[in-house]
Amino acid sequence: MSGGGALLSGQEKLTWSQEELDALTTEELFQAYKHTGNEELKWPLVMRYMGLVKAIALQVRGVYSSFAQVDDIVNEGLLTLAGAVDKFDPDKGIKFETYVSKRIRGAVIDLARRQDWVPRSVRRKARDIDQASSELFSELGRYPTDQEMARRLGVTQDQYQEDLANSSMCNVLSLDALFEDREQSGGAEVPDGGLDSRPEDCMLRQELLETLTKAIESLRENEQTVISLYYHKNLSMKEIAQVMEVSEPRISQLHSRAIQKLKLYMNQYMTGGK
């Protein structure tokens, strides 16, 4: 029996053999679960995305270093994945992988906060760096240099660069997190852009994406490369270091500096340049 035949003849089935499940494509399995709500189909569907969960877990683990256990991240990712399967609407024209990746990253970030993986000293220095960069950006009308940041923070340039690299643990956010902070503080939610989205939502999303594109284009070439390899190619910091033939701490510096710049750029856009 082909996968399509199994789907058409068995959408109301209560029990499925492993052979029948294996014969279904992921899309057919999704449709069968959505049509029947049969829990027997849910976990086989979830497990087909185990590779995606593991990839995100290993990527995040590469930044959180000894502060995170891969098993904890994978378990959290699977729970998020199971919930996303129920909420996802395949008729909206969005790929499930795109839909769920954002949610898995968000769940992992929440897990990191709950388990306090990042030392307080690192969080404090990351906040100091955020505040200094924001103040200098307002004063100078541009992103400050490392020398200017070090002077404002009262540390050597070498110490600043080390603190910047360490603060990468506080910056393991998808670019969507720039918008999530806005939502939590009372800003408008960024629409998912499904086929049935309202025209004004589609326009808002397009404007945000264009602004984010401009923000990324304003980065230095090596910073753009790190952002692309980390967020689009899903490489770990260690893998990016190998690709770019520099040290892993240097990649962490570039990542943190890029995120700082993007935050400043997007916050300026979202607050109307205030």
Summarize the amount of helix as a percent range.
Answer: over 70%
Number of self-contained structural domains: 3
CATH class of the largest domain: Mainly Alpha
Shape type = elongated
H/E element order:
HHHHHHHHHHHHHHH
Question: Could you characterize the architecture of this molecule?
Answer:
The protein has 274 residues and is an all-alpha fold. The chain folds into three domains: 1-48, no CATH class; 50-117, Rna Polymerase Sigma Factor, Chain: A, CATH 1.10.1740.10; 120-270, PhyR, sigma-like (SL) domain (Butyryl-CoA Dehydrogenase, subunit A, domain 3, Up-down Bundle). The protein is built from 15 helices and no strands. It has helices at residues 3-10, 18-23, 26-36, 39-47, 50-64, 70-87, 96-115, 120-140, 146-153, 157-166, 177-184, 199-217, 221-232, 237-244, 248-270. It is elongated and about 70 Å long. The termini are far apart. Residues 1-11 and 179-196 have low confidence and may be disordered.
